């Protein structure tokens, strides 16, 4: 190995310090082992050379903005960066080859929409909105050289936007062992990180022949506050339609239903009184995977099949890069709450599920705030300023099928100077579920997909 190669590798190992998981369970130890110095240098050199060479991306025609993560936040960000500053050269990085939407996926589980409705092409988004897309796994980044390291080489940036999403934190439900976490993830996936989880969950629902089907609601901030309650309703609706003799045991790690309480309570009682058993304040403390049991602080529950949604945390890319807030229980990024940039570095921004603000982790919120942050970055490049504005949260929750019936909430946020906390503002809540709400939920989704991919 040449001296220059050794220096490059050492600089990479020291500077990046962050390995992004391939999916929710992330193979950080395997990735670390792959790049750890060994006596057999010649065996690892080809892999290191692949990481250290420049990625095959078009030459930048202006200030380059690299966006990590092709979810609702990253897609909206990539489009609007070009909208607010056409001189930007934007590259969106995501490890998946295609986009599958988690919003509205509960309706898909109950056969109310097709998989085509949820699935879209990253190529279409990039071509239609004049930016670049590269399928790649991000391994880390160097803030000094302004380089993002991927499994396809490094990409230079002038601005970096991190929207890498969430990961499950199985340790918070008593599952510490890495092998057990992987088994739990594969056997009883939560359904909020990878599209394979959704496919597995749909097979579970439609192949279930009877008994106890267990779901849970995590505590803390998690992706889409209403989604676990909605999912319980959709599964109950499927079981009811198929006349499956089943009990859906919904263990809520919170003291009560967190949002749309009146509407969901009425659905549980009036529509699914024979199916759903709702148990609040049920903090899961352990899962016996092979024994089909979960333990809480005071009780133990057996099940025949399950969907286990553990508490979530920010992507490990945030923590391992040393940019997490040390006081955040979910390892959220240490960012300016109004401008979203990393404290001390206005070249790096964090949006979506890994950001520090306690806003909803739903798709509409991610879309709304990304529009604002794209404007902030564009203004920074032009030495201008943008007044803070609240993201908007819009959330539809289906409770019944044939016909599809749903309720909704629209809200904004405000900052309380006295408490120095964010709170809801200008909230419009509709807890009467009806067919108008059901159709509105699908029209909303169509409009959002059209905006991110086709306009």
- Could you name the CATH topology of the largest domain? FAD/NAD(P)-binding domain
CATH second-level architecture of the largest domain: 3-Layer(bba) Sandwich
First-to-last CA distance: 49 Å
Full CATH superfamily name of the largest domain: FAD/NAD(P)-binding domain
Radius of gyration: 22 Å
CATH class of the largest domain: Alpha Beta
Poorly predicted runs are: 1-38
Strand sequence of the main sheet, in spatial order? Answer: 5-2-1-9-20-19
Task: Please state roughly what percent of the residues sit in beta strands, choosing from under 5%, 5-15%, 15-25%, 25-35%, 35-45% or over 45%.
Answer: 25-35%
Which percent range fits the helix content?
Answer: 25-40%
| Basic shape | globular
Q: Count helical runs.
A: 14
Largest sheet report:
6 strands, mixed
List keywords for this structure.
single chain, 455 residues, alpha/beta, FAD/NAD(P)-binding domain, 2 domains, 6-stranded mixed beta sheet, 14 helices, 26% strand, globular, disordered N terminus
Summary of the model, kept short:
By secondary structure, this protein is an alpha/beta fold.
Question: What do these coordinates show?
Answer:
- The chain has 455 residues and is α/β, with parallel strands linked by helices.
- It folds into 2 domains: 1-165 and 315-389, FAD/NAD(P)-binding domain; 170-310, FAD/NAD(P)-binding domain.
- Helices cover 35% and strands 26% of the residues.
- It has 14 helices and 23 strands.
- The protein has helices spanning 3-16, 28-35, 41-52, 72-84, 105-109, 115-118, 122-129, 178-187, 195-207, 227-242, 261-271, 316-320, 363-381, 435-454, and strands at 64-68, 89-94, 98-100, 119-121, 132-135, 138-142, 147-150, 153-156, 159-162, 166-168, 211-217, 246-252, 276-279, 284-288, 293-296, 300-302, 305-307, 312-314, 341-342, 345-350, 393-400, 405-416, 421-434.
- The strands form 7 sheets. The protein has a 6-stranded mixed sheet. A 4-stranded parallel sheet has the order 13-12-11-17, with helices on one face. A 3-stranded antiparallel sheet has the order 6-7-8.
- The protein is globular.
- It starts with a helix and ends with a helix.
- The relative contact order is 0.15.
- Residues 1-38 have low confidence and may be disordered.
């Amino acid at each position: 190995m040449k001296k220059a190669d050794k220096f490059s590798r050492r600089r990479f190992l020291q500077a990046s310090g962050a390995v992004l998981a391939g999916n929710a369970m992330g193979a950080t130890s395997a990735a670390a082992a792959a790049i750890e110095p060994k006596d057999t240098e010649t065996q690892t050199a080809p892999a290191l050379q692949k990481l250290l060479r420049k990625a095959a991306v078009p030459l930048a025609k202006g200030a380059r903005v690299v966006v990590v993560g092709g979810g609702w936040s990253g897609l909206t960000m990539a489009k609007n960066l070009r909208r607010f500053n056409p001189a930007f050269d934007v590259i969106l990085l995501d490890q998946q080859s295609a986009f599958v939407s988690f919003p509205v996926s509960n309706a898909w589980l109950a056969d109310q929409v097709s998989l085509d409705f949820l699935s879209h092409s990253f190529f279409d988004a990039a071509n239609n909105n004049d930016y670049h897309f590269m399928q790649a796994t991000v391994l880390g980044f160097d803030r000094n050289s302004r380089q993002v390291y991927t499994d396809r080489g490094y990409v230079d940036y002038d601005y970096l936007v991190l929207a890498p999403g969430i990961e499950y934190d199985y340790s918070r439900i008593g599952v510490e062992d890495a092998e057990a976490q992987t088994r739990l993830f594969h056997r009883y996936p939560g359904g909020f990180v990878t599209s394979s989880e959704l496919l597995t969950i749909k097979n579970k629902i439609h192949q279930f022949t009877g008994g106890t089907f267990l779901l849970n609601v995590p505590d803390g901030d998690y992706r889409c506050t209403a989604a676990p309650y909605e999912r319980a309703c959709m599964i109950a609706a499927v079981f009811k339609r198929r006349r499956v003799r089943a009990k859906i045991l919904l263990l809520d790690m919170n003291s009560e239903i967190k949002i749309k309480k009146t509407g969901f309570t009425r659905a549980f009682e009036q529509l699914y009184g024979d199916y759903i058993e709702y148990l609040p304040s049920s903090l899961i403390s352990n899962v016996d995977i092979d024994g089909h049991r979960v333990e809480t602080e005071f009780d133990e529950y057996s099940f025949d099949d399950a969907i286990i949604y553990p508490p979530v945390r920010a992507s490990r890319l945030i923590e391992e890069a040393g940019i997490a807030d040390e006081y955040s229980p979910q390892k959220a990024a240490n960012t300016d709450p109004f401008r979203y940039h990393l404290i001390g570095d206005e070249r790096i921004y964090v949006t979506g599920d890994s950001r520090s603000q306690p806003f909803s982790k739903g798709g509409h919120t991610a879309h709304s705030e990304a529009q604002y942050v794209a404007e902030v970055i564009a203004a920074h490049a032009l030495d201008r300023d943008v007044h803070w504005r609240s993201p908007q949260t819009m959330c539809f929750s289906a409770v019944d099928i044939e016909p599809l019936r749903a309720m909704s909430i629209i809200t904004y946020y405000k900052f309380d100077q006295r408490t120095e906390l964010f709170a809801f503002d200008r909230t419009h809540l509709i807890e009467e579920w009806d067919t108008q709400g059901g159709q509105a939920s699908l029209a909303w989704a169509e409009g959002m997909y059209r905006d991110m991919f086709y306009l």
